[in-house]
Amino acid sequence: MNEFELFPEAASSFAGEVDLLYWFLTIVSVIFTVGIALALLYLGIRYRRKSEDEPAPEEIHGSNLLEIVWSVVPLILAFVMFFWGAHLFFKMRIVPADAMEILVTGKQWMWKIQHPNGKREINNLHVPLGQPVKCTMTSEDVIHSFYVPEFRVKQDVLPGRYTQLWFTPTKIGTYHLFCAEFCGTEHSRMGGKVYVMTPSDYESWLEGGADASLSPVEAGELLFTSLGCATCHHDGKNSQGPNLAGVFGTMQPLDSGGEILADENYIKDSMMNPQGQIVRGYPKVMPSFKGMVTDAQITQIIAYLKSIAGTEEADSTTDEETPESPESALLNDALEPDTTGQRYVRMEQ
Amino acid sequence: MSAPGVTANEVAPEERRIHYLNWATTVKSWLLTLDHKRICILYLCTITFYFLVGAVAATLFRIELMTPQGDFLSAEIYNKMFTMHGVAMIFFFLVPSIPATLGNFLIPLMIGAKDVAFPRLNLLTWYLFSIGSLFALFAIINGGVDTGWTFYTPYSSTYANGHVIAATFGVFVAGFASILTGLNFIVTVHKMRAPGMTWFRLPLFIWAAYATSIIMVLGTPVIAITMLLIIAERGLGIGIFDPALGGDPVLFQHLFWFYSHPAVYIMILPGFGVISEVIACFCRKRVFGYEFIAFSSLAIAIIGFFVWGHHLFVSSQSVYAGLIFSFLTFFVGVPTAIKIFNWVATLYKGSVSFETPMLYALGFIGLFTVGGLTGLYLSTLAIDIHLHDTYFVVAHFHYVMVGGMVLAFLSGLHFWWPKMTGRIYNETAAKFASVIVFIGFNLTFFPQFIVGYLGMPRRYYEYPEQWQLLQLLSSAGASVLGFGFLMVLCYLPFSLVFGKRAGPNPWRAKGLEWEETTSPPIAHNFVKNPIVTEEAYAYTKGSRHV
């Protein structure tokens, strides 16, 4: 609820042009709406019935001239809108040859993104300023729609087919990344941020330099959120993976039977080869993070998981609703800044 | 089925008259009635119920949207609520609203017929509609459906939770009610007109209902088949839409919108018809450009079948297909603009009075103009890329459906209420409610244009904090709007018992339904078969029963 705004930021080469056309449409619409409203008001008052005995007014059958005028004028305006809109639409659809290609895969409920050098990210997109970027997109399940309002671009992302979208970022900043096509329960959480960076910042981001000022636990916590782990590993009714608080160092039942100690190696294996040894009762949906994280980052994530171990023992042994410890409330805040973590009642198994 | 006491009726005091409502009062006489007027009442009760179902859902998700976090409903319930709202309001309220209620009541009366061409078929449609709606109701009560009213595949056919099959089957069955109603009206208008009632003497409501019927007959089978295909894929695993089974997900969107865009005109054309009648009556003047209004209804019905692709601009449809659909869509705008200008011109040198039906009609013109103009934004390719599936679209179609159709329905309901019930409602309460509805409506939906252009996607349970103010305004407006609707739901039934008796023609209107029969009409509509000798809206010749 900040200051009132009417336009989203204009952060791509299309944004200004789309806004200009929007202005044109708005001016035409306001003229017509106000004109019609004033005409109704004026005629209504001017010709109001003064007494019930008033004789019926003279018949006016119509006027062909007027009919032609008010058919042709809107038609001409409509043609202007059509050609202007179509011209801009073609620009949006013809991808320049020098565009950098980013691969995007939509999946309930995350965007998996891969950069040209192989670097991956989830639910976030980092792009360099001034560089045409082409997203080649597909979906693993239902139809999603890749939408960055500040760039004024949107494209549906379909299973079994590739679609493309392109833009040139023109302004450094952080923008919204949304899924615009309804895709199921967590539709409104399928998204994150688009970071437009200077080309040199983008290069160093690609190299994956961690922020040295953070402790391993803090860095791990940040990764846990930014990699999208938190999207599935929570206590919600629709969570697709176990809540990881209190898991480290305990025995976990496996889908294939038997148990396994959730130690450093198991955590790493689960990230690299998630379907190998999956905990019982969860769907096999986790993507592999191979190539997305460095060994140093894995170590940080493990450090973070260790730091939240031992906070929710009760949770892993009972199926009842468990009052949350302060630590886990803190954890949930960290994972899902938009929620209090109390929205869901735990009810798995 | 004969109504006794008809001959003595004309001279009996009003309270002892025998008419279509009171000549038999058993439940059986209602459930097996073949009288188009009673079938109208059956429909009116049913659709009011589904309007309330849709309204309850809207209330719940508007409360949820007051805050950016999810705190009132769970995400799953929220999704089920907007689905329930859409399914109930579109399929079980708006589509049947004017055709099946006012259309049923008025078409035979306006053309001077004793009933529709196929009275038994007419009753069958109400049963089909009710059975279909019960399937949808079952789906809602048994845990709901979370696909949205659009049932997009492969989500609906493979991934969605809930009773998709029951809901789509309900839409399938109710579709037959639409088809048969359309068929019945077409035959009725062709074959049952009174002597002298030529095509160009027909009231404009009939032209609109006729154009609507064409869409119902041609369009509805497509949605019915599409719903069956979803059932085939979801229930039997036959690959039609899901690429994992060899299907094509976009195929569904083509089939769905091939019906559902024309269905927008099923919902709005009869509204246009109502507005023409009301404007003529409260200006006491023939509608300006009668032929242009009549033919523009047909033009809309026909062109409306060629624009479905404008829902698919970002769907991966080819650039050239997008181009053609955008171009054709602008053409629908022209006949619509013609209507608006002609209505405004009708006021010129008229004798304008501002009773409740007229207030709603004037509100309709204003709000529908906004709805229509914002449709131009969405037909403009480059703008639609940004606005597709945002709140802008939500605002646009509510300006058309609620600001347009619901206001037209209320206008018509208030206009013909004295004819249907023989009673007059409290005019002060009604005027007050119409102003409340107008204000509440704008407060609810105008902010959504802004939040839409800012980029908020529709069907979002949680949203970025910066948009809370606009969403809050919208929820506040919705409560005002809801209050307005509740007032209508109170004073109209109240008038059935306490309202003043209306007399045959309280508005001094022209038209067979006003001039040639009592209020309420007798079971067989007219004592003497009417013979038509003048054009519609011949106010200069004076109206009977003044």
Helix content of chain A: 25-40%
Sheet of most strands of chain B? 2 strands, antiparallel
Straight-line distance between termini of chain A? 40 Å
- What's the structural domain tally of chain B? 1
> What are the segments of chain A in which pLDDT stays under 50 over at least 5 consecutive residues?
312-349
Strand order of the largest sheet of chain A: 3-2-1-5-8
CATH architecture of chain B: Up-down Bundle
Which chains make the largest contact?
A: A-B, 92 and 100 residues
Instruction: Name the CATH architecture of the domain at 216-335 in chain A.
Output: Orthogonal Bundle
Count of β-strands of chain B: 2
CATH class bucket of the domain at 216-335 in chain A:
Mainly Alpha
Strand content of chain A: 15-25%
State the total count of DSSP E strands of chain A: 12
Q: Globular, elongated, flat, extended or rod-shaped: what is the shape of chain A?
A: elongated
Distance between the termini of chain B: 32 Å
The rounded Rg of chain B comes to 23 Å
User: What summary fits the major beta sheet of chain A?
Assistant: 5 strands, mixed
Which features would summarize this protein structure in a list?
heterodimer, A: alpha+beta, Immunoglobulin-like, Cytochrome Bc1 Complex, Chain D, domain 2, five-stranded mixed sheet, B: 546 residues, mainly alpha, Cytochrome C Oxidase, Chain A
Describe the structure in your own words:
The complex is a heterodimer of chains A (349) and B (546). The C terminus of chain A is likely disordered. The longest helix of chain A has 32 residues. In chain A, strand 6 and strand 7 form a beta hairpin. The two termini of chain A are 40 Å apart. Chain A is elongated. Helices cover 35% and strands 18% of the residues of chain A. Chain A has 349 residues and is an alpha+beta fold. In chain A, 34% of the residues are buried. In chain A, helix 1 packs antiparallel against helix 2 and helix 4 crosses helix 7. In chain A, the strands form three sheets. In chain A, strands 3-2-1-5-8 form a five-stranded mixed beta sheet, with no helix packed on it. In chain A, strands 4-10-9-6-7 form a five-stranded mixed beta sheet. Among the domains of chain A are: 108 residues, Immunoglobulin-like (Sandwich); 120 residues, Cytochrome c-like domain (Cytochrome Bc1 Complex, Chain D, domain 2, Orthogonal Bundle), CATH 1.10.760.10. Chain B is mainly α and 546 residues long. Chain B has a single domain, classed as Cytochrome c oxidase-like, subunit I domain (Cytochrome C Oxidase, Chain A), CATH 1.20.210.10. Chain B has a two-stranded antiparallel ribbon with strand order 1-2. Chain B is globular and about 70 Å long. Chain B starts with 5 loop residues before the first helix and ends in a 31-residue tail after the last helix. The N terminus of chain B is likely disordered. The interface between A and B is large, with 92 and 100 residues.
